[in-house]
Structure formats: structure tokens, C-alpha cells
Amino acid sequence: MDFEFSPEQRAIAETTRRFVEKEMPRRKVLQWVRDKVEPPQELFEKLGALGYYGFLLPEAYSGLERPDPMGMLAFVEQFARASAAVTTAWGRAAVILAPLVAKFGSPEQKDLVLPRVMRGEVFMALGLTEPGSGSDAASLRTTAVRRPDGCWVINGEKLYCSQAKSAGFLILAARTNPKVAKQEGISTFLVQDPGRNPSIELTRIETMGLGPVPTFSMHLRNLVLPPDALIGEEHKGWQCVLGGLDNERLYHGAIGVGASQAIIDEVVAYVKQREQFGKPLSKLQSVRHKIVDMQLRVEAARLLVYRGASVLDRTGSCHNEASFAKVAGAECYMHCAYTGLQLLGGYGYTVDSGLPMHFQDAKLFEIGGGAMEVQRDIIARGLGL
Ligand SMILES: Cc1cc2nc3c(=O)[nH]c(=O)nc-3n(C[C@H](O)[C@H](O)[C@H](O)COP(=O)(O)OP(=O)(O)OC[C@H]3O[C@@H](n4cnc5c(N)ncnc54)[C@H](O)[C@@H]3O)c2cc1C
């Protein structure tokens, strides 16, 4: 199996690395974290200008001959070095939701959403999780009822709807048939400018990390959507959501790999120059071994992430492989944030070192987009258990 990047994919990695150094220096990212503000849209428009929203979109919108999951990983690994959180603001549109619109949306929906996403002009939000349905997402209770005029009336409550206020488009999952099995009665809808809709009440939820990517609870009270807001077929929304979740899990793995590698690079530089007991910390065997163990996890996670991309490239989906990638990448990130902070000592505990940010962000990836236990359940099913 050859997981080497092509020359074009290497160029994506290199361009992204330079982009991140210039546009997202640590002091700027830490300012976003401290102030709990989203990065300016301009940052994402620059990514759009580079074509970095199109990795998983069809040629008509991306200009690529075919989708390029490996190119997507080349980008994510480098971008996540600066901020895992900010990577999710890009990925919710580029990786999870725009490909969903491309696959299931009507021609009008595609023309409305995809060019704006490609230009990096809009964030996207996903309204799936509810107070009573998280890991068991298909048990959602928000309802969508069709009126005689064909419009949809939506009522319910959503939780942790990231970037719902600033998003240009929200993809909302709601129950359209309560009488059938839970996965069979769900439909998905496209909502424009959710933050400006008077029938949608948003309340920011304070979170441990992910400061630059605010998340909200969302009350939907008699939200009326036009007939053409339905994405794909009525009652078939679960299939739409699932493909998006697989993509999310794969790129979450890549975020873990990129952010972990950034931590390791930082730690290596630090322990080589920091002297204690008359020699650099890097000469202490237990320090060296800790760093080696971090790198071992990164290498293993990277291979699983690349394998996922390779399967997605060949078959168009990657259910099991995405779960492997997510578990390996997320647990690697948590481990590297924890161990990296320890190895930087008092400096690691300072906000300016960037390690507290990593420490707080890393935990999200073991929960959001499907907890580690849920991923292990998926892998177990693949093993016939
Ligand atoms: C910062 C943040 C941003 C988010 N953004 C979004 C978003 O934009 N849109 C959206 O729809 N959702 C979003 N989510 C929701 C996220 O995907 C859910 O939190 C996640 O799926 C877990 O659901 P839950 O929190 O309800 O946990 P629960 O389902 O209540 O699970 C709690 C814990 O129970 C354990 N557990 C659960 N199921 C199993 C199992 N089968 N076997 C063993 N143990 C299990 C796990 O340890 C799990 O962590 C976000 C969450 C966070 C924290």
C-alpha cells in the first residue's frame, strides 16, 4: 500500500504550512482563544482563493478532476498545527456539510451553497444533537410537519450547534415520521442565515476549549421553511447525515495527527535547549522515551488516517476506517497534549506556550462527532462482534 503524497499533494502541504505561519501565528490564535471570537471570515476566504474548500466536492464546483481526500489530509495536517479548533470551522463546511449538499441536494441547493462555500464566504452549521439524543443521534425528537401549502413547520431543541449564529447555512435534522424505526423517519433541511431567523433562539454554551468556534443551544419555535428546503428524499435524512459523520471522523483523525505533530516539534526544540542537572533535558532517557512514544502514536494514527482517505478515494465511503482514524488521532492528540505539557514543565502550564489550548481542545475530539466508545462499537461491529 502506497500512502505517499503526490507532488501536488506535497505542494498543498507546503503551501498550507507557509499560510499558517503567515496568517495564524500563535499570538493571533491565542488572542482568538482568549477573546472567544471566531477568526475573521477573510482568513477562510483566503483558503477559498487557494481552492482549499473543494477537496471533496465534484468537479463542477471544485475545478478538480476528481475529489482528493488525500489532498484534504495534506491540508488538514498542516492547518491543524496552528489550531485544531479553527480547523473545525473550515471542516464543518468543507468536509462534512458541503459534500452532503453536493451528494443529496437539489441542483438549486447546490448552486446556492457550494459556490459560496468554495469561496470561503460562509460557515456552515449542523443541527443534529439534542438534549435527549447525542451518541444515539437517530433518536432525535425535533419535528418537521408539512403544511397543506407544502411548507415545513419545525419545532424542537438542538444542542451544541457550533457556529449556528454566524453560519450562512444550517443543516437541520428533524423527524418527519414518528411511526417508523428511528433511522427511517428523519429528514434533513437547509436553513439560510439561522442566526438571523426570529424563529431560532440561540444561546451560547461556554465550553472548556474550542474558544474560536462557539457552540449554541438552539430553540426552534414554529420555524417555517419552504417546500424546497428539504435535502434529498423525505424520511431518508439519516443516510445524508451518516456520510457526513464518516467524513468528519476521518478528518478529526487528521486534526489529531497534525496538532500532535506540532506539539512534538515544540517539545523536541524545547528539551534540546532546556538544561537541568548540567545537561539538556533531551539527554534524559525518560524524556526521550516519552517523546518517542508520542511520535509512535502519531505515526500509527497517520497511517490509519491515510488508509481511511485511500478507502474513501477508491470506494466513495469509509465507515469503519473513519472510526479507526478518529480513535487513533483523537487519543493521540489527548496523549500528546498531556505529555507535551508535562515535558515543558512550568512553561507548558503557561497560556503562551500553547499547550493549555491543545489540552483543552484535544478533549473535544474524544467526544464530539461520536465518542470514543461509539467508534469502538462501530469497529466491533466490523469485527462481527
Ligand atoms: C464543543 C462541541 C461542539 C459540538 N458541535 C456539534 C455540532 O455542531 N452539531 C451537532 O449536531 N453536535 C455537536 N456536538 C455534539 C457531539 O457530537 C456530542 O456531544 C457527541 O456525539 C456525544 O453526545 P452526548 O454529548 O450527548 O453524550 P452522550 O451520548 O450522553 O454520552 C456520554 C458518554 O457516555 C458514553 N457512551 C455513550 N454511548 C456509549 C456507548 N454506546 N457505549 C459506551 N459508552 C457510551 C461515552 O463516554 C460518552 O462520552 C458538539 C459537542 C461539543 C462538546
TrEMBL record:
E.C. numbers = 3.13.1.4
Q: Which residues form the Acyl-CoA dehydrogenase/oxidase C-terminal domain?
A: 236-383
Query: What PROSITE patterns does its record include?
Result: ACYL_COA_DH_1 (PS00072)
Domain (Acyl-CoA oxidase/dehydrogenase middle): residue spans on this chain: 125-222
Domain Acyl-CoA dehydrogenase/oxidase N-terminal as annotated: residue spans: 6-121
MF term (GO), any: flavin adenine dinucleotide binding
Cofactor(s) needed, names only, are: FAD
Entry keywords, A to Z = FAD, Flavoprotein, Hydrolase
- What InterPro entries has UniProt attached to this entry? Acyl-CoA_DH_CS, Acyl-CoA_Oxase/DH_mid-dom, Acyl-CoA_Oxase/DH_mid-dom_sf, AcylCo_DH-like_C, AcylCo_DH/oxidase_C, AcylCoA_DH/ox_N, AcylCoA_DH/ox_N_sf, AcylCoA_DH/oxidase_NM_dom_sf
Q: Which reaction does it catalyse?
A: 3-sulfinopropanoyl-CoA + H2O = propanoyl-CoA + sulfite + H(+)
Spell out the Pfam families in the cross-references.
Acyl-CoA_dh_1 (PF00441), Acyl-CoA_dh_M (PF02770), Acyl-CoA_dh_N (PF02771)
Family recorded in the similarity comment? Belongs to the acyl-CoA dehydrogenase family.
The entry's protein name is: 3-sulfinopropanoyl-CoA desulfinase
